[in-house]
């Protein structure tokens, strides 16, 4: 009861103000920045993947699978990355996922970058010693985290593997950690069985890349890492 009206007090929580109400509207990126950030992020992602592969200390989960297929087939990494990306996108059909420009760019750019990056690393460090391998692995994890924040922050469409996770999340309603862990454990196990390299860097990647993405997103994802992609007409307004 209130003292002035004698009516029951209203205990409903006060409405939460939005950033726009405080004069802090979401920061929208211009098309030129979004395009260049997407491209640079994907190039960096390909280079970082090559660094982890060449380190010999363990690759990220999907790269373990790629490596296993390369060892069994003798195909170039680029072709394997391209093929896996296309196969994963086929799984989008029953999940009703829609690709964006960034989805197609993800498959093409990383496929084109990874083999030249491996070639350069093999010329610079033909057989990395332990210290060099550790440096390559840690540097690759950091670069991969920054690159992920860059291309996801452009919000031009998820990569094939990211889209698989979000599609399963929407379809099943299961916790995101359960879906992501299930996918990555599966690809690691299959990759190891095929001959891929699982090492300490694979574990460090699993726990360390997330914080790097989060810190990098402060500068590379001004509109956030989640939510619907911005339409071209809305950019720059």
**In percent, how helical is the residue content?**
55-70%
Query: End-to-end distance, in Å?
Result: 48 Å
H-E order:
HHHHHHHHH
User: How many strands, what sense, and barrel or not for the largest sheet?
Assistant: none
β-strand percent reads under 5%
Mean pLDDT equals: 84
Quaternary structure of the protein = single chain
Shape: globular
Number of helices: 9
Over the alpha carbons, how many angstroms does the gyration radius reach? 21 Å
Task: List low-pLDDT spans.
Answer: 13-25, 229-237
Q: Class by helix and strand content? A: mainly alpha
Number of strands: 0
What is this structure, in a nutshell?
66% of the residues lie in helices and 0% in strands. By secondary structure, it is mainly α.
What does this structure look like?
The chain has 237 residues and is mostly helical. The protein has helices at residues 31-55, 61-73, 77-90, 92-95, 101-124, 130-153, 160-172, 176-194, 200-220. Helix content is 66%, strand content 0%.
């Amino acid at each position: 009861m209130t003292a002035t009206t004698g009516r029951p007090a209203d205990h409903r929580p006060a409405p939460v103000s939005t950033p726009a109400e405080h004069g802090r509207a979401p920061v929208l990126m211009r098309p030129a920045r979004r395009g260049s950030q997407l491209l640079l992020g994907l190039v960096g992602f390909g280079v970082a993947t090559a660094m982890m592969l060449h380190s010999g200390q363990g690759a990220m989960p999907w790269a373990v699978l790629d490596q296993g297929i390369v060892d069994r087939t003798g195909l170039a990494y680029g072709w394997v990355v391209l093929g896996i990306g296309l196969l994963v996108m086929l799984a989008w059909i029953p999940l009703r996922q829609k690709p964006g420009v960034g989805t197609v760019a993800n498959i093409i750019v990383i496929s084109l970058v990874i083999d030249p990056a491996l070639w350069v690393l093999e010329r610079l460090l033909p057989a990395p010693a332990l210290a060099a391998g550790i440096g390559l692995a840690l540097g690759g994890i950091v670069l991969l985290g920054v690159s992920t924040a860059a291309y996801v922050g452009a919000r031009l469409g998820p990569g094939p593997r990211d889209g698989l996770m979000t599609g399963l999340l929407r379809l099943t309603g299961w916790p995101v950690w359960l879906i992501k862990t299930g996918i990555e454990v599966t690809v690691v196990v299959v990759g190891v069985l095929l001959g891929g390299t699982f090492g300490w860097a694979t574990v460090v990647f699993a726990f360390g890349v997330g914080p790097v993405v989060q810190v990098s997103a402060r500068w590379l994802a001004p509109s956030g890492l989640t939510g619907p992609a911005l339409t071209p007409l809305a950019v720059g307004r």
